[in-house]
Amino acid sequence: MRKIVATLLIAFLFASCSQSAVRREKPLVAVVMKSLANSFFVTMVDGVTADHAKRSGEFSLLLNGTRNENDLAQQVAIIDQMIAMRVDAIVIAPADSKAVIPALARAMKRGIKVINIDNRLDPAILAQYRIRVPFVGPDNRKGAEKVGSYAAAKLAPGDEVAIIEGISTAENSRARRMGLEDAAKAAKLKIVSQQSASWDQARAAEIAGALLIRYPNLKAIFAANDSMALGVASAVTQAGRTIVVTGFDNVAAVRPLLDRGVIVATADQYGGKLGVFGVDYALKAVRSNSSLPDLETPVDLVHARPPRAEQE
pTM for this structure? Predict the structure, then answer.
């Protein structure tokens, strides 16, 4: 899968570079992802490329992304490359809600339309730069609250739970953490630990392993994305414990674990469509040459399918 993505990126890069040397007859939209090692963003790339293949006559596409979710410097460098190529619009899933804003401000000064997807940019920093960037994406707090509430129904008031969040400066990580907190507090659960695993599966496994030792009565670990939930699940299995584990994203790798009850719930924010929503909004911004409002997209609870007998 990663080789396929890399090939697509190279192909789009050369196609777009050749177009930049001549007057464009159609808009050039750059989609800048984070962590092409994360299957959620690979799904998003697949959705964008499949959509573009159906309507390539409508716009030109340039895809790029970082190697991991912590590589802020690389993402800023990609934005500057897009500015140099004079793209018409940038659709970005930012690695950090604050650090990329100066680069995006530079792009907007050049007349490039910017659309923010997946991880919301920090409103206070945007205000400092006197820019407004439309956000296209789900309400992460609402989605996480749905997941947390479903999991909480399997617990009892006073049960000990832990929350593992993503990058602490990322707006979607904070929103998901707050949604999980909302659910835990509503169910009168006891939150004994909140830690960041920076969206990383291995780091989440390490944290979960330590939590299981420190809190022998721990009943649940809520993870802010599926990569971390997979790490938590492996630690729980290795420890021989049975506790409630949740995630967020509904990547393919969690579905067998959902059906086996190893992970009880996740949230689907429709990664295959989210990038397409962003591209569509970017094209609307380019054609209308106007400031657009935020656009909320769906996020739904996903849990194990009930046994066949219960379905009949």
Answer: 0.84
